[in-house]
Amino acid sequence: MNRERGMALTRRMFELLDRRETDLADEVMREPVSAYTSDEVLRRERREIFSLGPLLLGLSADIPEIGSWRSVDIGDSPLLLSRDGEGRARLFLNSCRHRGVKLLEGSGQGQAFNCRFHGWRYDLEGRLTNVPEPEGFEDLCRVDHGLVELPVAEKHGMIFGSPVPGPPVDVDEALCGLGPELMEWDFSSFHLYTAHHLHPFTGNWKFAWDTYCENYHFAFLHSETLRNYLYSRRQAVEFFGPHVRMVSALKSIDSLRGIPEGEWEPFKHISLQYRLYPSISFSVYPEKVEAYWILPGRHPGEGYGIHAVYVAELPRTAEERVALDEAIRFGCEDIVNGEDLWITGRSEPGLRAPASPGYVLFGRNEPVVQHFHRLYRQAIEGPSSAGERIGAGPAD
User: Fold this and answer.
1) Rounded alpha-carbon distances, angstroms, from residue 30 to 24, 321, 347
2) Reduced to 3 states, what is the DSSP secondary structure of residue 76?
3) What backbone torsions phi and psi does residue 98 show, to the nearest 5 degrees?
4) pLDDT of residue 393
5) Which of 62, 188, 191, 301 satisfies CB 3.0 to 4.6 Å to 157 for a cystine?
C-alpha cells in the first residue's frame, strides 16, 4: 500500500481514538437463530454462496512454478489449482473422469496428475493421457474425458476461481474497486511460509466469521492477548461492494503524537484487515499476510478454517525464523484456537435452547457483521430477506 493511503488511515484512527468513537451502522440488527442452526439454511449457503463464485483461492505463491498444484475444497466442490506448462494458473474439478475419485490431496509438484485408484493420468492442461488396459475402454474418446476445467484468473498476485463452469473470471470486477489498493501490496512477490492447515471448530461457520468482523470483543475475549497491543472498540470501516477494509490501531500509535507526519511510519502502527466475500480474512502487514478461509461443515454446528501465512521475505537467520514461528504459533494456538474458535463452540447450547429468544443482536458498532449477514440472506432468499433492524422493519 502506498504511503499516502497509510497516512490517511492513520489520521482516521487518531480521529476515532481522540473522539472515543468507532464507525457505526445505522441501526441495531436482529438476526434469526435459524441462520446458525437450520439445516436448510446451511444447505442453501453451501449451494448459493460457496458453490458459485468467483472466490479468492489463494495467492500466486500457492503455485509458484510450472507443475505446482494444490487441492482446494470449497463448499461442495473439491478443486485442483495448478500451474500449467506455460505458467498459467488452471483450475479443475479434483475428480478423476473414470470413477470420480479425488485425484490429489494437499499440495505438490509434478508433470502429471495420477489417479491412485486405477492409474488414469492427466497432463498439466488436464488432458487424459493414459488409461491402463485401454482395451477395456475401446470406445472412449480421450479428448472428451479430460479433467473438468473451471474458470480461474490471476492478477495482483491473487488467484480467483469459480467452483462451477461459467464465464471467464475478471479479478478487478470480482474485487469491486479494491483491486488498485491490493495491487499496491505487490502480493506477486510474496512467498508461502506455512502450508495451508485446518482449524476445525464446533459451532456454525458464521458465528466464527462474525468474530473476524469486529474488534468490539478485543478488550474482553482477548484480554490477555490482543488487548495488550491493539485498541479495542475503535475501528475504521470502508465497503467495496461485498468486501470490506477494516482498520484498527496498535497501541504504539500513541508514539506518533508530537512527531511531524513526515517522520511517521504508518504501517507499523495500524492493522489492516481485508474481509473478502464470502468469508476470507486477509490481514495484511508489510512483511506478511495472514489468510483464513472460514468455511461451513456438513452440519450447522461445525465448520473449519484454513490458515496460511505468506511473507514478503523469507527469514534470513535462525533468529528471524524462530521469531516468525513463535508469532504464527501464538496466533494459531493462543488467539484463534484458544479464544476465537473456543468462543464459537460456546454459542451452540444457548442458540439451540428451548428458552432462546430466537434471534441474536448485532450492534451499531458491528457494521461489518451486519453487512455480511445481509449479503448471506440475500444470496439464499433474495434481496427482500436481508435481516431485520430493530425499530425499522426489514432491511432494504
Assistant:
1) 16, 46, 16
2) coil
3) -80, -65
4) 33
5) 188
Q: What is the dihedral angle through the alpha carbons of 332, 333, 334, 338, rounded to the nearest 10 degrees?
A: 110
pLDDT value for 392 = 34
CA pair distance 195, 212, nearest whole angstrom: 21
Q: What is the pLDDT of residue 75?
A: 82
Chain-centroid distance of CA 191 in Å reads: 18
Provide the grid cell at 199. 482449524
Q: What is the pLDDT of residue 395?
A: 32
Quote the radius of gyration of the chain (alpha carbons, Å): 22
The mean pLDDT of 7-25, rounded to a whole number, is: 96
Give the model confidence (pLDDT) of 308-352 as tens digits.
999 999 999 999 999 999 999 999 999 999 999 999 999 888 888
**C-alpha–C-alpha distance, residues 286 and 101, integer Å:** 41
The pLDDT tens digits for 201-225 are 999 999 999 999 999 999 999 999 9
DSSP secondary structure, 307-339, as one string: EEEEESS---SHHHHHHHHHHHHIIIIIIIIII
pTM of the full structure: 0.92
Residue 32 CB neighbours (<10 A): 15
Three cell numbers, residue 80: 485442483
Peptide bond into 200 cis (omega under 30): no
Same fold, 3-50+178-381 and 55-168: no
DSSP-based three-state secondary structure for 224: coil
| Cis peptide bond N-terminal to 394, omega within 30 | no
Q: Under a CB-based contact definition with an 8 Å cutoff, are residues 91 and 154 in contact?
A: no
Cell digits of residue 253 = 500509535
Kindly state the cell numbers that stand for 20.
472515543
Where in the chain are the domains?
Answer: 3-50+178-381, 55-168
Q: What is the CATH number of domain 55-168?
A: 2.102.10.10
Q: Which helix (H) or strand (E) holds 173?
A: helix 171-175
Decide if 175 contacts 274 (C-beta within 8 A). no
Q: In this structure, is the dihedral angle defined by the CA atoms of residues 193, 198, 201 and 207, taken in order, positive or negative?
A: positive
Domain 3-50+178-381, CATH 3.90.380.10 — does that match?
A: yes
* Cα torsion 25, 278, 379, 348: sign: negative
| Sign, Cα dihedral of 230, 233, 236, 240 | positive
